[in-house]
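Form P-L/3: holo structure prediction, ligand fe (ii) ion.
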Amino acid sequence: MNSMALSPLKYRHSILLIDDEEAILEIMAAMLADEGYDLLTAGSAEEGLALLKKTPDVSLIISDQHMPGMTGVQFFAQARHISPDALRVLLTGYTDTDAIIDAINSGGIHRYLTKPWSREDFLHTIRQMLGKADLMRENRRLDELVKKQNAELLDLNKGLEEKVRQKTRHLNQSLEELRSSLEKIRMILGGTVLAMSRIVESRDPYTAGHEQQVARIACVISEKLLLPVDRVEAIRIAGQLHDIGKIAVPSEILTKPGRLSPLEMEMVKTHCRNAYDILKAIEFPYPVAKIILQHHERMDGSGYPQGLKGEDILLEARIIACADVIEAISSHRPYRPAMDIDTAMKEITDHRGILYDANVVDACLDIYRTQGRQGFLS
Ligand SMILES: [Fe+2]
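OUTPUT (holo model):
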């Protein structure tokens, strides 16, 4: 048996030696002097217990069995309560075997050494026991480390949950503020669009209400075509402003009773481009300026100002074109009285797919068939 074969110890250990024979205590202490342990010695069980109470953190207790007053087994029965983690080795003679086995079974001692023991046996036993004590201490350290880290994780987790709650509260608050701001912006936009359309209408009392009405009809058609809310909103704004370019057309031409001359007609036609130039700088969330630019384009390319054809014309512009025609035909004009809405339906039916988008015309006819004139006013 060779203590050198055992792996090096990680910790420095204390050993308590107890023997009523001073000479044996001295021999044991001398054998352990150069091993790098902290040694405590006691000449009796009572003295050993007193020492343990003062320094309970010992790794190993080695006690003689035969001592006056208290045997080693009796001593260990008390010592284990003071230093439960300490390993206990009993020094005894061969004749005490039964008592020793009882003590081992009851957990009072971990190992015993029978006298006489050799120096090598003694050192090896101690080294083995300290190896075990070393592992136990390392286990305790790791156990405490895991507990500490778990507690830290738990704290961290609680902190994180609180931070997430706070962040969520702030985000919800910001979202609410954004919604409110957006609602205000929508109201301002709606008010501004209305004011702009009234400026145009104020120059031409005969068409007062025309733009609002076109916007309303165009929205009804858009909803019939199941367009998303955003596009319907774009169509509403474009409808309300579609004739804003007439601001640059002399009001004598706009209000002139009877047919316009070709030159006057050309001036009226500039209203699409005028509107585009007025509105293009405004950052609407939808292509309002472009929709208005195209509201007099026709499916066969006969419209103005660009002569676009078919699907090159924005669907929104094709819808406003139909709404514009329906509203214009069924309303009073300086050069003619209001006509019946049937005339408007006939106009779009006769030119279905030629001047006006076929799907848009079908939607209009469907609205008229099921709801009559009222269907366009809702
Ligand atoms: Fe127009």
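COMMENT: The longest strand covers residues 87-92.
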